Amino acid sequence: MALRILVIGSIGGFPNEHVDQIFVTDCNLYGTTNGLRIKTKATNMPGTVSYVRYENVFMDNVDNPIIFDQNYCPSGSCKK
């Protein structure tokens, strides 16, 4: 079975969230809307995502292969 999406997020829901030392390897993604994705919420809370490494990731028919979304708003009512 192929993994369909790789997402890190949603960072920014709490103060000082940190994600680091992520290593993703040997993945196949087929026919998805989004592939590799890092998303942080549209808040003013500090946080970091660091030391993320992708290696040997194959994608076929992926609409958005790599996304860094720094204003993710799941509710649709986030302040600008």
Descriptive labels:
about 80 residues; mainly beta; 3-stranded parallel sheet; two-stranded parallel ribbon; flat
Task: Write a compact overview of the structure shown.
This protein is mostly beta strands. Helices cover 0% and strands 64% of the residues.
Provide the gyration radius in Å: 14 Å
Structural class: mainly beta
Share in β-strands: over 45%
**Proportion in helices:** under 10%
The largest β sheet comes out as:
3 strands, parallel
Biggest sheet strand order reads 1-3-5
Shape annotation: flat
One letter per element, helices H and strands E, the order comes to EEEEE
Q: Give the strand tally.
A: 5
SSE layout and pairings?
Blueprint: E1 6-11, E2 17-30, E3 34-41, E4 47-60, E5 64-72
Parallel strand pairs: 1-3, 2-4, 3-5
Account of the 3D structure:
The protein is mostly beta strands. The chain has strands at 6-11, 17-30, 34-41, 47-60, 64-72. The chain has no helices and five strands. It has a three-stranded parallel β-sheet, with no helix packed on it. Strands 2-4 form a two-stranded parallel ribbon. The protein is flat. The mean pLDDT is 83.
